[in-house]
Amino acid sequence: MFKPLELFIGLRYTRSKHKNHYISFISLASMLGIMIGVLALITVLSVMNGFEKELRERILGMVAHVTVSGTGGKLSGWEDIDQRLAADKEIQGIAPYIEQQVMISANGEVRGIVIQGIQPERQPAVSELSDHLLDGSLDTLVDRDYNIAIGSELASAIGAYIGDKVTIITPSATITPAGVLPRMKRFTVSAIYKMNMREYDSSTAFIQMSDAARLFKMGDEISGLRLKLDDLFAAQPIAMKLQEQLGDTVEVSDWGRDNKTFFSAIRMEKTMMFFILLLIVVVAAFNLVSSLVMVVNDKQADIAILRTLGMSPNSVKKIFMIQGSLIGVSGAILGAIFGVLLASNLDVIIPAIESFFGAKLFAEDVFYISTVPSDLQSQDVWIITVAALVMAVVATIYPANKAAAVQPAESLRYE
After folding, report:
1. Rounded distance between C-alpha atoms, residue 74 and residue 307, angstroms
2. Which tens digit of pLDDT belongs to each residue from 170-185?
3. Residue 21 CA from chain centroid, whole number
4. CA pair distance 359, 410, nearest whole angstrom
5. Of 37, 68, 195, 375, whose Cβ has the fewest other Cβ atoms within 10 Å?
């Protein structure tokens, strides 16, 4: 710890009104710069964490944590695999599915979509689809009724709603006396959902798995099994374990690998944003250096007197390190406090701003996430605050060394 004398003088220099008000202004600007930098870093990273969490939850609302599929697109003997997986305590839910790319047609409109054959009674164990229905029910997907559940955007695009007929055109063909014709089947729209994810709302539909097996001539085979785990972050090691247990006849993948590019881009963007906003703190630290250099030049006579009274150069150095560190610590702590308060109350602040200006920042018809989510993580707050404190302390080294190098005789020559 610093001796009481250095601490007393350092605090006195910080509290005292300088003759040069410009120096005081630069010191205040340095503190405010550090505070704003820390505040911005905490808030922006919390928002990016919130967006990542929101997107992950929405994606995992439709995508399984782990998927077991056949190597050739078809999984044989899936009932035995289903029973083996059901005995695993780490697996919370299992649901079989059949998946194919098809064309859907209605009212003269044609769209390419992915159609999934599911068992409605087992689907809630691995998906949140039933929680996002706008109309109808998944229970209407009954064997041989040929009903279909489509996304809200797809329904608007082809003009098909509850009770309307749509035509599914498969990529396989049927040979008839009239020639080779594509396989087609009429379905009735019995449910419409909205996941707020364009990939699913505009290009995915669901039918009964038995209907899908007949439509695609799958027989007793399926595309694969979707698994839901107790801990979604344990998906990768569990997928590797299941791959070893089930062998090379099946392919086991996890949600992280299936969406690796997407989440890697988010993490890279978050990292780059951290370093970009950290430049605000760096600029404030440079301002702190300049303000302390000015203080040292202004206090050369005082430093010389202290040296003649027997104070060592190291003690003089500590005086100015205390003064600069106090400015940096104050800015970092205030920034952390206001940053935490702002990030924790964005759900109230953003609607208030939108109400005041009468405009929606994230319109629902443009953005799929129409609110500003915030996920404040304590580790981010600590990393940002400590980084600001370290930069503030480092910024005091050069001015403090300059003060310690002051020669009493040279400084008092013209006094």
Report:
1. 86
2. 887 666 665 556 788 9
3. 44
4. 64
5. 375
